[in-house]
């Protein structure tokens, strides 16, 4: 392969990959447009990214008092939307477009909204419990309240009768509830199970700063280059101005002078336009560099774990929380309302809702295990969560600010009823955890073109097959297959941006997205990150007209090479017996292999009558139809960018 042809191929690839900074520009425009849309909506809701607006909203809500649980749950819908919007801003805005003060502001607003929402639930629970005696059940004599909502499920039980034989608390004729010891059955207490389908307990993840530092350096260099160009242009204009002045000293030749001035103005305009074009070109160069760096960070493996985890502490790099948080509380029953001459008199405690300490801090030589046994709890797993194995239960350690697995025993799971039962020494927030890498490594993958500007990514794991449809800047869960049976998910049919889509799949237990620490927990087929990234970018460029898939030879070849199978795919119908071609790529050289998927031994031998190329694009161009290449060149930059992002997020070349 001669040097001249290599340079030509790389130049053409560079032009084609201009779609990535172009797509990033469109994303920026979309983010600005969303702010403008919110402004012109005038629906009364604050823009959470604007500090005065969100602070005013929080202050006004703090002033609202005596809200019932129903009112708090209704208001929580807006609050959760605001929190979700801020989280998405932090996730979707590239690190190089985020300033430290903005990150601090957004995270501060998220924490303040989360804390205020939980406080409102506590105040509303206290208001409900003050009226417990008036809401008592006629049969049991105790009060029970159940509220179910799309984001929250609340169970409250007040022990008014204090019957020592009433130890089994079950809500609304379900199996959800508690088995309490005698000491609690005879105490002035209330039990609350607040299941938030979201997780506001786990600390927020830090925003990566390495890319911002890199971009600041590149930005500085490019700005210097722009400044240098502008200075050069100004100097050129000044010199031309002096030259024009010297040449037009003859005052009596008015017509000649006028023509020279006109020519000077045209030339000045041309030079300024050229300067603007150069500036624009340099800005696109900066954007291209920063996008490339952001893509590289998506697949870069961390050198070490973030920190050492203590005994019984849940490693959130290895495990993930599922189904939200279950806030389990034993509460002291507040003074009850008393009717007097048509009035309701109630004593309001200054300290508000108080937790009942169980077991007590001082037991005075009483055998704790027999007098204060663990409390048995039965919970229901959230409907849209998929569990691939029996879940583990973790409790929140408020002091250490992490999830722990100690103090929990006798865990059992009924998959047919989606019920988890366990014993807990002390009640508090609990959550279900599952191995974040249970679906890794993948068994196979395939990327197939569909309609115009639509692509289907299929990932097959030990437990499931997930199909993801991609169009423009959106993704959709097309189907999930569990144990060879199609499984319905509430996510199916919902178009989302790639980042929102990935978050939704993770929350549902369908994590096929490795993190920078995943290689510590999964046996992977390590590939050089730079070569892997280049491969994903070029596969995305070709994805509108060619199908790609997993090859068994990708495991055999070295870490500085990747192998994929390819076929031209222009029809919407699947090809019955596809004739796959094997391609090998090393970052700067691509070739067709002589072997096929069914060959007995691996060989890097070049296929007859083919030659080496610098890129996958030019390799494919050698044998592809003209129609296929036209379709590739006319692909939407947003589709190419989204396909590339999903490939970078799943890392199918390393994790299959």
UniProtKB/TrEMBL annotation:
Membrane-spanning residues: none
Domain of life: Eukaryota
InterPro entries (UniProt xref): CASC1_C, IC97/Casc1_N, IC97/Dnai7-like
GO terms of molecular function: beta-tubulin binding; microtubule binding
Protein name: Dynein axonemal intermediate chain 7
Comp. bias regions, Polar residues: 261-270
Alphabetical list of Pfam families matching this protein: Casc1_C (PF12366), Casc1_N (PF15927)
Any Gene Ontology CC annotation: axoneme
Family: Belongs to the DNAI7 family.
Domain CASC1 C-terminal: 401-568
Segments of skewed composition (Basic and acidic residues): 232-260
Residues covered by the IC97/Casc1 N-terminal domain: 2-165
Positions of the UniProt region annotated as Disordered: 232-272
